Structures are given as C-alpha cells and as structure tokens.
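Marked as duplicate of an earlier ticket. Keeping the data here for the record.
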Amino acid sequence: MFNDIGALELVTLVVLAVLIFGPDKLPKVIQDVSRFIRKVRDFSESAKHDIRTELGPEFKDFEFEDLNPKTFIRKQLTENEDLKEIRSSLDLRKELSEVADSVNGTPSPAPSGGSDLLTKRDQPAPGERPPFDSDAT
C-alpha cells in the first residue's frame, strides 16, 4: 500500500499530522483511521466472497486482479498454447539482425528458410563503397 512513499515523505506526513491534530489527539485519530481501513478491507473481502458465490463453481479460480486489462492480456499471452507457438515461430531478433547485417554489409549466418540479401559476389571489396540504390532511399 505504501510502497512508493519514501522516508522523507513519511517524516513529513508525521510532522503534518502532529501539527494538525496535536500530540494529544493523534493516537485517537490513528486508531480511527486504522479501524476505518480495516472495515473497508472487510467490506471488500465480503463483496468478493459474495460475487464468487453468486458466479458459481465454474468461477472458483476467478481473480479480481484479472479484470485489470494489463493483467488479463499478460495472462492470456503467457498461458495460451496457440500464442506460444506463434511467438516461437516469430523470432524478430533474428530477422532484425539479418536485416541489420545485410544493410551493414556484414555476412550473417545463413537463415534456415531463405537466402541472404547480399551474396558473396554482391559484397563490395574492402575499401569500396556498397552500390547506391536510389529507389531504396
């Protein structure tokens, strides 16, 4: 809950609380706030329990965190077997390195299913500039 509050911010909040409520009322305020937070947590847990019981046994593994779109997409991408096959067949790093190697004129390892864009005879001699293609620029 307070993962993003640093030490200086916490000290500032404590000093402000002492200045606003005073040292004599501060323990009562802390008790009231903690009681309120506890009630809110209990209410949300009971609401979650009620929703799970109303949904039935098919949704016993339902997590409310899955309603967050980022979490839902991440979960679907990691658990879906069809998508795993697609991701494994698509190796973008390999293809990008092949394109970068062909642009730079450095030899790359032969791909499994195709031919290099620049073959040995198309590569310029050392010190010679690669051919200029006006259509490509």
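See parent ticket for discussion. The CA atoms of residues 107 and 126 lie 13 Å apart.
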